[in-house]
Task: structure prediction
Amino acid sequence: PDVIIEAQFDDNDAEHGQDHLQDMLTDDIKKLSLDIGEKGKAAGVTGVQRTKQDDGPKVNDPRLLPDEFLQRTAKVVYILEKKHSRAATGFIKLLADRNSELFKRCAMFSPVDHRVPRVYVPLADCPPDFVSKPEAYSQMLFICRIVDWKEDSNFASGQLCKSLGQAGEIEPESEGILTEYGVDFSDFSPEVLECLPQNLPWVISPGELAKRRDLR
Result:
């Protein structure tokens, strides 16, 4: 068995230097080896067979293991910044269990981005005829925003924000992407538009072209 020898020494031992401590540990190991050998002979042990499981280090204290045998672990203690907008583009459908109490209150929102979890949304946020004609909205894109995710639930909770239109069309798909990434695509305010040249048509002056690199 692996044995850890702890040497205790006072200030007098320290004065003899590191060589004295090394010699003392070496003597202790030799004595221990002789004791183990004699005990093995007394017990009738003629040899030791090693197996694959014996190849690894047998140290109870993980602080004595090399770094290559350790797995670093950590615990999240605080969310400093929420990077995701909590908004997603996807489709709504009825719950599979029609006899459940949840079927009467919620619908299932399935995001297009599979990295986002599926979301329970209130039926009050869905179109009025969604329950009676769910197939009419099978290809309709919606924007949903996640508001909560309870620890004991497999799905998050959210609210439908708006209907974008048919999937596959450029305008609904583009608006969904911009909303997911939190891009403000609303119209510019009058204050911003006043910063633009008012005398149209406007052209770049020759002086500006001479000192700038043309990337058009």
Summary: The first strand starts at residue 87 and ends at 93.
